[in-house]
Amino acid sequence: MTRGRIIAGVVVLAVLGALGGGYAYSRATNVTAVTTATVTKQAITVTVNASGTVVPDAAVGVYAGVGGTLSSVAVTDGAKVAKGDVLAKIATGPLKLAVQQAESEWAAARAMPTGTTRLRTARNEAIQAARAAVDQARADLKKATIKAPSSGIVTVPDTTQKGAATTAGAQLFTITDPARLRFEAQVDEADVARVKTGQKAAVNLDAFPSKPVAGKVSLIKGTSVKTDTGGNAYPTRITLDSTKGVLRGMSGSADIAVSSVPDALVVPIQAVLADGSKRYVFVVTPDHKLVKTGVTLGESTDTLAQVTTGLNAGMLVVTSQLTALTDGMSVRVQ
Question: What's the fold here for domain 66-90+145-176?
Answer without folding.
Answer: OB fold (Dihydrolipoamide Acetyltransferase, E2P) (2.40.50)
